[in-house]
User: What shape does this take?
Amino acid sequence: MAETHLSVKLLYNTPNPDSAAAAAARQCYSAKGASELLEALSQDEVAKLVRQVVKSGHHSVLEHASFTFAAEGISRACTHQLVRHRIASYSQQSQRYVKAKDFNFIMPASVKTKGKEREFIDFMAASAALYSSLCDSGIGKEDARFVLPNACETKIVVTMNGRELLHFFEKRTCSRAQWEIRALAEEMMRLCKERAPLIFENAGPSCVCNLVCPEGKMSCGRWKSVPGCVLKGD
Ligand SMILES: Cc1cc2nc3c(=O)[nH]c(=O)nc-3n(C[C@H](O)[C@H](O)[C@H](O)COP(=O)(O)OP(=O)(O)OC[C@H]3O[C@@H](n4cnc5c(N)ncnc54)[C@H](O)[C@@H]3O)c2cc1C
Assistant: This one.
């Protein structure tokens, strides 16, 4: 049993995601097919097309670019928020089939800042001990897991397309999102920007991608440092 930390890997993605989206977009207005366009489009044309569709909100063509991530060292509290995003595919380590004896856990920085680290670890150990005792008494893993904490580490594979990723980044890289899912979203966004720099060129919270902060008086104030951004909401 030990504290663990977030690790995110981009397992695979649609080859040339920017070009794939551009070819799909161009085909809508061309006598040529997407396979021919994929070969023929110059980098400048790809850039122009992708910027156009992202800016105009014609995001359906971004659905042709798909990205699959493996997230580990992530808490159950975080994956519960993640799986609320419905336009995605998930495969999560099962607490019914994988025994959580000596589970690893995620500890929020605030627990350490407030000097509660020892109590937190003791509670993890107590939870693990009760879990093991329930399992040893013949109670199935699917019932014993009821005593496991939200801090328990899990592993999850996530697939999202470009459109959903832009939406996910808008919601979850915002400073209003909870710190752990924000860390996950920021790392996924960093990896996406490497693979598809055009689709994700302006990815980020609403103040960055829409030039609007909808948070009103709850705003973190970042919008003030984004040229052209306005504040909305109560
Ligand atoms: C800061 C923050 C705080 C939150 N707090 C809470 C909370 O207190 N309680 C709580 O329950 N949740 C909370 N949530 C979760 C939130 O309500 C959403 O469930 C989550 O962000 C998923 O977003 P979504 O529904 O927009 O998008 P996704 O499921 O990712 O879907 C993407 C888009 O597809 C469309 N779509 C998807 N499914 C449908 C559908 N069935 N019908 C029509 N359109 C659809 C919508 O346009 C949607 O925006 C919070 C989220 C954030 C970011």
User: Anything to note?
Assistant: The two ends are 45 Å apart (CA to CA). The chain has two domains: 1-98+154-203, 206-234.
